[in-house]
Amino acid sequence: MATPSYRLAAAVTAPSTGEFLVVRQLPPPSPPSTAPGEEEYQRYVDSDLYDLPSAPLRRLAADEEPVPPGVAVGGAEDGRLDLSRFDIPAALDQILNQLGSTSAMCGEWRLLKYIEEPEFGPDAGVNTVLIVGSLEPKPEVLRDSCKWMSKEGAWELLYGVRPGGTRIGPYVYIGFPKSELSSNCIAASALASQEYPPGLTLVPMKSRTLSPFRTTNLVVVQADGGACGSKRSIFFACGDALLIDPGCCSQVHTELTDLVNSVPKKLVVLVTHHHNDHIDACRSCQFPSKEVSGACYTPS
């Protein structure tokens, strides 16, 4: 697998209020319109997406001297990375420029979390170094693209998504609500996964898929707020958790078994189609302690 790239994300907090700064994200570039009927797609404007400010983080070459420590990051004793081998000051300057601030306005920084992106495809992933610092006194005049947000407000927006409403990005979720509030995410420590939005987890699992890919995504969806009651008919199935495409190969069936045991008892399994990398592990989802319903979607 190729060498990953890196990003630095910063949670800039105001200790006096417990709030943190978020930045309105730029929309992705529109693809060129090459087919008839795409005019409506080209005119579509998505709602605002706010997230923690971030910037590319350059890893130093093996023969490159360490960058002078103009920025100290406390609590960085993580065996998976050596922050002295990254150009932290340059990335942090880009982040503070988004906020209209300078490093002199911030106090000490500390490592909040290091996130290694799971293997979703053959291309290199993006690993993120998430740091947290404070900004005091709290400035009330901000750039138009920035605003203060509370953890409770972020959680409300994550769970109360409305058409056309403000959206919250993954760095906010990973950095604050997920780390401090209870969540329905799967308890599968042996498997690399990504949960976003809350309650929807992607688990790339080794499978008999086509080269150059090596994994197929198992999608785990859990109901919010407890049991919804299990119902079955010839038309629909209802449960407390949904597994989509359990198609991993036999080498990781033990990990899948642990995952299935971690989700609620009333389980629905959905297979989108009959390729091996989507059905190979269906038998591993059958347990006497589980109420399992199944469905297969076949495109017409």
UniProtKB/TrEMBL annotation:
GO terms for cellular component: plastid. Coiled coil: none annotated. Transmembrane segments: none annotated. InterPro entries: RibonucZ/Hydroxyglut_hydro, Sec-metab_biosynth-thioest. This is Metallo-beta-lactamase domain-containing protein. It comes from Lolium multiflorum (Italian ryegrass).
